[in-house]
Structures are given as C-alpha cells and as structure tokens.
Amino acid sequence: MISPPASVSLINGLKIVLIDLMLAGDNAVVIAMAVRALPPRQRRIATTCGAAAAVALRIVITIVAAKLLSVEFLKMLGGALVLWIGVKVLSDAHSTPDAAPTSGSLRQAIWMIVFADITMSIDNILAVAGAARGSTALIVFGLCVSIPFVVFASNLIAALMDRYSVIVYLGVAILGQVGAEMMLTDPFVARTLHPSQSSMWAAEGLAILGILGVGRFLGRRQARKAD
Fold this sequence. Notes:
mainly alpha
C-alpha cells in the first residue's frame, strides 16, 4: 500500500486534533463533575489517569469503530451513568467540603471518567476514524494530543464549581441533556421508539428537571442527617 504524502498526513492529523478539541467540551464537564468531591491533588490524579485510560481504550475502539454503533444498550448504560453523576454531584454539594474522601472514591471517580468518556464518545470515534483514513498512528497522535486539553479544562471547571455554586447547576443541566441524548440515540431505543427531535428535547428537559429535583432532595436529606 502506498503511504500518503507527509502533507496529507499532517492535514489529517490536524483534523483529528480539531475534532477532539471541538467534541471534548461535554467530556470535560462530566470529568469535572465526577471529581468535584475530591481534594485538588486527587482531582489531578483522577482526571489524568481517567483521561489517559479512556484515550487508550478509545484508540483500540477507534480501530474497530465500524462495529461500535451497533452495540445495543451501551449508550443507554452510559447515559444512565451520566445522569447518576449529575444527581450525585448535586446531592454531595450539601456535604461537608473538608470531609476526606477514601481511596475508593478516587478509584470510583477514575472508573466513572473512563466509562462515561468512552460511551459519550461513541459517535465521535467514527469521526476520528474517518479523518485518520485507516492510519493507526494518526489515531494515536490525535487522541493523545487531546489529553492535556481535557485534563486542564476539567480541573478548571471543577475549581470554578468550588467558587461559584451556580456553575454546579449549569453542569448538572448539561449532564441531564447529554445523558438523555445518549439514551435516546441508543440503537435499541432509536429502532424501537423512533424518537422525534421534539420528543428528544422534551426528554432532555425532563432529565434536567429530574436531576435537579432528585439531587436537591437527596442533598437536603444528607444535610439533615449531618445536623
């Protein structure tokens, strides 16, 4: 097989980097929400390890991306996890901020980051695979370049959440929209229910309201127990 010219490889590599940067916004929000309860040092560990592990898995998955979108219930599970992260973060917002998280919390945050990132990136993986035009080297290059951006963005968002509580609610709303969209675009749901665009918007709105309601209820209950 004839290797493509260096200029073509460079252009394809830049395409992959741009795709990763444009599509990393939701992932950064999810990561920030997942690590918000951890202290700054453990946040950096969780985001770096989680993002690196997710990218490593994404490289493998991208190589066989053609079969990925046919896996039923995968996006449903990922969407449910994203919604659960939103509820958990909002309920934990009422807990004592200086409570020391256990090592289990760190491991849990890393696993949440890996699974949520992979399931959220299913559609994006095909875009990367298409831009790479079969080049594994370009896939590895583009995805690895995205790690520093996602880690920096997620740590910045988590720090802003500590300072401005309104950002927590904005992040929870984003998680509600993302989680509902993932579940409704799962192959099984799409084939069975054929949701229209208006029904998807309605479901996303209900998911946001549901997360806000359940999260605030659980948070207030935690606060009453702590008193």
